[in-house]
């Protein structure tokens, strides 16, 4: 074990790796409640099946990452992408059914996998400007936060001014606000389990409200353990093309591009960030086992789509593990085992509603705002596209529209200021695809 996981070489111990894995699992276990709550609220998708798909795909992908890339990096369905997935299906902008949209995620994972196995990944990494990558992350963060506020009832629609503040006297809204500020307090005090503590406080406050105010916010489970819910409603649903038609092809291809770009660069940034923090990536910037790490990320997305959930990605909560000394894949394998055990705890995680998990979305948005600091705002070719990404992602309730306007405006700015030759052909191709998408939609 010592030789395989490079424990002595990296200055790690089995005890600390397992401890770091347990703490990190607790920090990211909210996904077992949030993902089923979000995706399970879409017509035709079974909440229990999503729970099992979430736990199983996270376990498999995290095990692959730990066993083969030997990184202390954990994977699970991406928080921004599940909200985006729900929005595109319920927003009416696309004609795809939920299983057809999952097929787009599977195909994006296939492209990701091919790039990970070939030198083409370097071309893709270098083609998209760093500021655009950061802007996409910020746009997703704004969207996810807005979705959280909306689901909690903190922000509601208004026919005159579009949106306004919800009824703060409503127990659901008040509890959500309290939970958000509790999580913020944990963040400020550098507590590792901010989201989990927010969940617990939300449950306690909901139970108190139900008892003293007569509200009906939460239903306690009749049992703690149970057999994992069946995967039958979602397993392999992506291969059901009985209702797919040629007019849907443009929507499918567009989603493939969107999910690939977000998943590829989100996973890459987390792998590099955690790798540096753990001391695996040296000052020379070389990423050991980069191919294995990216393959685990891409393979996880493909596995997740087949099981029935959205894109699997490297979790930023992996930084919790590296911050307490995790340096090898043993901590990731610990998390994988805990995800498998969690499959038998569905009654506990099923009590979470969309409103209860909403504070987690807001906190994820806050995490993603840190990318603003790395953007070169003094450069017009950075400031203008990022501005468009942020504004359109939020105000059109679609990160896809934000990304489209970002790429289009970047090419436009570069051409106008005489730097068109500096733009990679891939960016021009993507901009044309985005123009076609906006025209067709």
From TrEMBL:
InterPro entries: Azg-like (IPR045018), NCS2 (IPR006043). It is a multi-pass membrane protein. One of its GO terms (cellular component) is plasma membrane. It is found in: Endomembrane system. Coiled coil: none annotated. Keywords: Membrane, Transmembrane, Transmembrane helix, Transport. Its main location: membrane. Pfam families: Xan_ur_permease. One of its GO terms (molecular function) is purine nucleobase transmembrane transporter activity. The chain crosses the membrane at residues 18-38, 50-68, 88-115, 136-156, 168-188, 193-213, 252-274, 294-315, 335-367, 387-417, 423-440. Belongs to the nucleobase:cation symporter-2 (NCS2) (TC 2.A.40) family. Azg-like subfamily. This is NCS2 family permease. It comes from Shewanella hanedai (Alteromonas hanedai).
């Amino acid at each position: 074990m010592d030789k395989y996981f490079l424990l002595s070489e990296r200055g790690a111990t089995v005890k600390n790796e397992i401890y770091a894995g347990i703490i990190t699992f607790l920090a990211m276990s909210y996904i077992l409640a949030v993902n089923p709550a979000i995706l399970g609220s879409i017509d035709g998708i079974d909440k229990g099946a999503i729970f099992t798909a979430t736990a199983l795909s996270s376990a498999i992908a995290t095990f692959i990452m730990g066993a083969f890339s030997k990184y202390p990096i954990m994977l699970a369905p991406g928080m921004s992408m599940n909200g985006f997935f729900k929005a595109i299906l319920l927003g009416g902008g696309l004609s795809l059914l939920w299983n057809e949209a999952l097929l787009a995620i599977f195909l994006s994972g296939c492209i990701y996998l091919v790039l990970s196995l070939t030198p083409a990944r370097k071309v893709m990494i270098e083609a998209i400007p760093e500021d655009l990558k950061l802007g996409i992350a910020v746009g997703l963060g704004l969207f996810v936060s807005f979705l959280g506020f909306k689901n909690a009832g903190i922000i509601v629609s208004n026919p005159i001014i579009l949106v306004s503040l919800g009824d703060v006297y409503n127990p659901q809204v008040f509890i959500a606000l309290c939970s958000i500020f509790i999580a913020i307090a944990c963040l400020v005090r550098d507590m590792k389990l901010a989201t989990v503590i927010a969940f617990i406080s939300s449950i306690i406050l909901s139970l108190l409200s139900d008892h003293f105010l007569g509200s009906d916010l939460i239903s306690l489970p009749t049992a703690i353990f149970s057999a994992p819910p069946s995967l039958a409603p979602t397993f392999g649903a992506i291969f059901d093309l009985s209702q797919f038609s040629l007019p849907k092809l443009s929507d499918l291809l567009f989603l493939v591009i969107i999910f690939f770009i977000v998943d590829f660069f989100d996973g890459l940034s987390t792998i590099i960030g955690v790798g540096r923090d753990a001391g695996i990536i040296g000052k020379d910037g070389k990423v050991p086992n980069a191919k294995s790490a990216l393959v685990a990320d891409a393979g996880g997305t493909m596995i997740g789509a087949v099981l029935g959930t959205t894109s699997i990605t490297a979790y930023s909560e992996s930084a919790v593990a590296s911050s307490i000394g995790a340096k090898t894949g043993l901590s990731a394998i610990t998390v994988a085992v805990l995800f498998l055990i969690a499959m038998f705890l569905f009654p506990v995680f099923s009590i979470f509603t969309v409103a209860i998990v909403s504070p987690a979305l807001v906190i994820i948005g806050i995490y993603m705002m840190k990318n603003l600091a790395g953007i070169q705002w003094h450069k017009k070719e950075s400031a203008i596209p990022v501005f468009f990404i942020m504004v359109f992602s939020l105000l059109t309730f679609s990160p896809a529209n934000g990304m489209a306007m970002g790429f289009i405006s970047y090419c436009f700015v570069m051409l106008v200021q005489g730097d068109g030759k500096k733009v990679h052909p891939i960016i021009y191709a993507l901009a044309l695809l985005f123009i076609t998408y906006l025209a067709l939609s």
